[in-house]
Amino acid sequence: MTAGWWGAVLGLVAAAGVLLVVARLHAIRRPQLSIRVLPYLHDLAGFDRPAGAVTSTYSPLPAAVGVFGPPLSTLAGWVERVLGGAASVRRRLDGAGLDLTVADFRVQQVVWGLVGFGLTAGYALLDGLGGGAGVVSSLVLCLVGFALGVIGRDYHLTGQVRERERRILREFPTVAELLALAVAAGEGPVAALDRVVRRSGGELSRDLARVLGDIRTGEPLGDAFDAWAASTSQPIVARFAQGIAVSVERGTPLADVLHAQAADVREAGRRELIEVAARKEVLMLVPVVFLVLPVTVFFAFWPGVVGLSMTTP
């Protein structure tokens, strides 16, 4: 076969791969049965959340584990033995709101590592064809790529936790005010919590939905909020949950407590904004000092330099 035929075969294979990926993405984006049935279940308790608030929990991880289960599980166990820190991973998974176990996360780390290994292996192969590095250095480079992939998934999890915490802090004042308005209108704590969960969406609303589910299964309201305060990593949310629990147990006005909590969060946000501006003050001077000031000096002194060069013999 000539080079043209080989190019045609490779092009057909690449096109078939792209078509398979597009078809699979189309199948993944198809609405689930639960989302299509949900509008007809509004008369049932807990099923009147808007359809847009229901998030798909599809993940290609079970399929990958089903096909390559034993090798991935073995590599995941090796990563767990080398890195450790299962308790920290579990805490961050809960903080990120991911419905994953530690073993599933280790498998994801292995997948990321294999992607890094494949990229570095491709680079090493191209370098080797060009007469570059040897076999040992290429193998070391591939191992480094695998390690960077594993570590990169861990850093990505930390970034997911921080992003979710920022979203919760943005949602917190609004949710607290809604709870305060519902309680001030005469509803009980559980009814107000149910109304806010049904009418809102977001990360904080999902946490409140879990608390509401614990209450409906028979757990006392104060204990449910205490458990939420113990599980969260944000001091503001922990104080909010503890304030509600103490207010319910001691009979203090819950609406006043919620208004005070929302005001505290807004004040904390303003203080954080001022602190960030103070830290960025030096960086804000960089364009002024290195861009605006040199141009100003140039325009101020350049005519005089030109004039001196024209007058001097």
Automatic annotation (TrEMBL):
Its main location: membrane. Residues 177-299 form the Type II secretion system protein GspF domain. The chain crosses the membrane at residues 6-27, 110-126, 132-152, 282-302. InterPro entries: T2SS_GspF_dom. It is a multi-pass membrane protein. It comes from the Bacteria. Keywords: Cell membrane, Membrane, Transmembrane, Transmembrane helix. One of its GO terms (cellular component) is plasma membrane. This is Pilus assembly protein TadB. It comes from Nocardioides euryhalodurans.
